């Protein structure tokens, strides 16, 4: 079952209807469990296809219930290591021997996101006694939560329990209105905005190689690099909008994944705003322990200042490498790690030289933000070249425009993104200017109703005009 | 949320839709005009005469997705640039009968089946060729017999009857003295009916549907779900479709009787758009038999001593059906008529009609099919 799709909406509406009718407690948990199993089953041709998935979940549960109470370091590292290894084996990472893999078709959808949830429980269960008594139904509902199964967001168990069992969120007409609004926005992003940008990108992919003039090819290269981040944002944030809205029908509050990422004026800030649930997870379970470990082991205070950069590099390298098993994804991870590490070193040096307050004042200056946003977007677009393309295609494009062309394309992209992002921010500010009852007029429910109606019309029109279906959710494959 | 919002918010939605839709509808009516009725065609003659056009008449028709088309008729009311004078000695003449499809409805004359067939035959034959097109919207059933009599009076070397699955549906209704095609549903009253009529005339909905349905991946599944309409591609054939084939069988017999044994009759089959899409893209045809109806028609044609030619065989695999049909209207466009003409010319030579065999060189496609 695709997300978003009308089948998914129908399935979710029926499940949410039953979920809200039955009494709070065990009955609701059971309804959610059935819905989760039913959703997962739609990806399997036969029951056998689900056996590896079930085995992974079973082993994870045994680790939480069985090994976590053994308060020893070896038990901790064994369970964590085994969970990671099992995941890598099921995902067929290339550093493992090919012969060891299962040579059968089995369901892998959302396995990466299930892995993050299971590993988080395995790690936390060593220090949290409540998790060691986790019931099977709560475990399955948390790890297989169908609203966030396909591509996240990655929720922490405490937050999940808080919204499902401790304090279920209210569901009234105002909330239903917000759910509808978010669904429409999500569908517009996936089915209209992302679809249009993808079409443009395909057109430029052809032009960048085939266009007769060098300048045309350079502009196409700049445009091609710029379009993928925009496509990915619409595609993934649209999906996130949809699943957050659907989860809300089950009174679950999923974490946000995006916070205007392209307004970030630094690469570190960008990762604080993009795929936030993943970066927060990695900060908690990779960055913080690694940073603490370096702090404990490195005695030289000068080197300590750079411990954060090293930890950030490792964390964001892992983020990149997690996306795929090819050398392109490892390089994508390297560039992400490099970006945050250089950004952190730059901050450290300037803070040392200027002092914290003057550096903060400099960072808030309009010109600094103007340039910072453009540079950040360009770096994001540059790293993503290894996300959507491969070495051969990139070499073909580079050969087509030459080294000078590559530099020119980068400069065009920096300049264009500086200007475009400033214009967007200015327009956003202007729109939020007029007020109604102390709130921006554009945020009033009346203005939002107009906006949402226009988006629905936009989706219908774009879906009619497009001759091919909108691209599937990119993160579904990870 | 306040109580008044339960009324205000839906009104805002409606107002927004209207504010956007009304100017768009107006703009679409200007840029994509619609004038479907061919004013030259005379409907409502008492049976059993054929629907025909007024002599020397000209009118302009257009569907939103197509160009303006001039429908001009000669002194006999036939769609032909050749005069309908008695056939000159030492010339070849072809007469085409059938409904709007045969007439080249919505297609400029020079790209219609008659003009294209004339052009091909002129290139292949040593004798001058003229084509008289007696096709007119609704000419099936008893009207077809009348049309065949008129065609035979022109002393042609062959008569071509163009049929499509839609014609078979039409065939049934034409024998029941139903109103002419353009005069349906005018008697309906009441504001709901009026609203339905207005909505069905909405250019916005038309263009929206056009954009959606021009894609075969959208169109074919919708068509397949449209009940009995698609049943001619389902096996075994439904009772309705068996009856329609029986009517066609009777029509062929009547036409054969009307034109006599000396004039060869060719049944030229043109598939429906959905059928063409399934033939060009086999995965769309899962569970369907898009080539079955034409084999049934071929069998019936041969049983009556008529020849059979099939446009389906001219469709190149992978061809999007909207490139050979008007996506919404369903008639063949100019490209579709090129395939129809090709099938006709090949059919003429496959049939080994003496007049054409003696005066013409067979086209390469027909030669390839000729037995040694």
From TrEMBL, chain A:
Q: Which UniProt keywords apply?
A: Acyltransferase, Alginate biosynthesis, Cell membrane, Membrane, Transferase, Transmembrane, Transmembrane helix
What are its GO cellular component terms?
plasma membrane
Where in or outside the cell it occurs: the entry states: Cell membrane
The reply on keyword ATP-binding is no
- What biological process terms from GO does the record include? alginic acid biosynthetic process
- The name this protein carries in UniProt is Probable alginate O-acetylase AlgI
Pathway-wise, it operates in: Glycan biosynthesis; alginate biosynthesis
Specify the species: Xanthobacter autotrophicus
One term of GO molecular function: acyltransferase activity
Q: Please, which domain of life does this record's source organism belong to?
A: Bacteria
Question: Transmembrane segments in this chain: where?
Answer: 6-25, 37-64, 70-89, 101-123, 214-234, 303-323, 329-346, 367-388, 400-425, 446-466
Membrane-topology descriptor: Multi-pass membrane protein
Q: Record's family?
A: Belongs to the membrane-bound acyltransferase family.
Q: Answer whether the UniProt record assigns the keyword Ribosomal protein to this protein.
A: no
From TrEMBL, chain B:
The GO molecular function terms of this record are: hydrolase activity, acting on ester bonds
State the source organism's domain of life.
Bacteria
- InterPro entries referenced in this protein's UniProt entry, alphabetically: SGNH_hydro_sf
Task: Report the protein name in the record.
Answer: SGNH hydrolase-type esterase domain-containing protein
